Amino acid sequence: MTVTDRIIAGSMTFMAPVAALAAELPSDTLNLQEVVVSAPLKTNPDLIPMNVTQITSAQIEESGESSLLPVLVAKVPGLFVTERGFAGYGVSGGSAGTVNIRGVGQGNKVLFMIDGQPQWAGVFGHSLADTYVANGIEKVEVVKGPSSLLYGSNAMGGSINLVTHTQKADGLTGRARAMFGSFSTQKFALSSGYKKGRFSATLSGQLDRSNGNRAGSAFWLANEFAQVKYALSDRWSVAGMLDMTQTHADNPGTLQDPLENMWTDVFRGTGGVYVRNSYGKFDGGVQGYINWGRNNVDDGNTPGTDPNDYLFHSTDYNMGLTAYESFYLWTANTLSAGIDFQHWGGHIWNTDKADESVRSAEARHHVNEIAGYVMMQQGFFHDILNVNGGVRLQHGSTYGNVWVPQAGFIVKPGHDSQIKVSFSKGFRAPNIRELYLYPPANPDLKPEYMLNYEVSYRQHFLNYRLMAGVALFYIDAKNMIQTVRVDGRPRNVNTGKFHNKGFEIEAAYSILDNLRASASWSYLHTDSDNLYSPKNKLNAEVSYSPGRFSFTLEEMSIWSMKTGNPDGSTTDYSLLNLRAAYTLGTKVPVTLSVKADNITDKHYEIMYGCPMPGFTIIGGVEFRF
Question: How high is the pLDDT of residue 185?
C-alpha cells in the first residue's frame, strides 16, 4: 500500500458539481467534506492550516478541456492564468500561461509539480504552460499561499501538483476520445490501465491541433505518459513514471506590433522513480526525478522587414533527490522530516540559419541546492485544537542560506465548522537568466521572499448539503528582483516590494440530488503595478444531470485587471459557457458531448493586443471499456 500525504482542505475548498459524482453520493449528503491531498509525497501533514483546492478527475473530464489551466481558472478562487488566443501558450517573447495566485505568480513564483516533482525550465526559471495537460492526470491539488516549507524555491506564491492516474481495479480498462470544433480544432486522447495483484500500469496519449483564432496562431501538441507501480509487500512499494510533451506554436504578435515567422518548438520530458515504506509508527520514502527540455525559437520579424538570420536554442534540466519520513510518536502527534537535493541549469546558443555550425551568444550555467526541513503537528482536546509548526533551512550555491518558518492552528468548534489561522514564508531564488544572461544580469542577487498571514472560516449546513466559507489574507513581499538603471546601465537588483490583501468568499449547495450550484468571489488589493491579477473575480456554476443527460452552465466575470495597455487602463468582461453530454450504453458506455464557450460572443483581451476568440464550439464522442 503506497504512502500518501494529506492536507485537510481550507475553507475555500469545494467540489464543483458533476454528473459523474452525483450517482455515487448518498441522497442526503453533498461532497464538501475535508479533501484528502496526496500530492506532497513528503510528509503526512493532516492538519497544516493552509487553503487547498482539489480538482477531481471527474471535474477535469466533464470540463472538456485538454489543457488543465482553464480548469484551474474556473475552479480555484483567487487564481488567474494569462491567455493570448484560442490554442497554445507558447514560450519566449509574447508567451502566455502565467499563473497568479492572489496576485503572486509572475517570474515563476507558483511551483508546478507532477507527483511532487518540480516542473520548470532550468535556464529561464519559468513554468511550461503547454505541458500541463489533462492526459494521465487523476487530480490537481492547489495550495494557495507559500509552500516553501516542503518545496523550497519557486513555491513562494503557492504550489500546483498534478497527481497522475493509478489503475485501481484488477483487469484492463481504457477510454478513447475524439473532439472537433471551431478554428479546425481537433483533439484526440487514448488511455489504458492494467492491474493484476501487486502490479499496475497506465499508458496514455494525447494529440491536439488548431489553426487558432488569429491568422498565424496555429498550434499542435502531442503528449505521452506511462507509469508502472509494484507493491513489494504490504509495507514497501516502488514506482516509475515518464511523461513527454512536444509542441509547436506560431505567434502573430500583438495587433499593435505584429510579427511574421515567429514560432517555437518545445520538447519537454519528466521522469521519476520512488521507493516508499509504510509502518505503524512511521512512513515515508525516497524519490528521484529529472525534468528536461529542448527549445528552438525563431523570434520573427516585423512585416516588411527581412527574416532573422539566426535561430535561438536552449536545453535545460532540473534533477533532484528527496528523502522524507513521518513519525507518529504519541497520540495525535506527527513529526515529519526530510532532506532535498536539487541540481538545475542549462545551455543556450544561437545558430546561423545559413550555416548551423556557426554558433553565437553561447552560455552554460548550473545551480545546486540542498535543504532540510522538520515539521510537527499536535492535537489537543480530542482534535478540537490542532497546532502546527515547522522550519526549513535551504542552501543555494549562488545565494547562501535561507530560513523558512511556518506556523498555525486549526479550531473546530463543532463537527460542521472550522477556523484556520496561519503564518508562512515563501521564497524564490534568482534564476540563471537573472544571474548571468544578457546585460541586466547580476551574479550577486539574493532570493525574493514574502510573508503570508491568513485566517479562514468554513461552516456546513443542512447535513453537509450547503457549505459557506470565507478567507482573508495579507501578503508582505520584499527583495523583489527588478531591472533598474545603475551607472547608466540596466541591472537586476533586489529592490522591489509589494503588499497584497484581500478575501475569498465561497459557497456550494446541493439543491437536489441531480441539481447543484456553486459560486466564489475573490477580491484583491495590491499597491504594485501588477499585471493579469484581477481586482475582482466571480465564478458561478449550475449543474443539472437528469438521467443520462448532464448540463452545466458556467459564468466568470473579471473586473479591474491590467492587461499591459501602455495607458495603464484596466479591463472588465464576463463570459458565459455551456456544456451538455449524453451517455448511452452500460457495458461499453459512449458519451456524446458538446461545449460552447463565450456564448454571448464577448470581445475581450487578457494580454494587451491579443484579442481572445468570440463564440466557439467543440463537440465529440468518448468510449470507455
Answer: 96
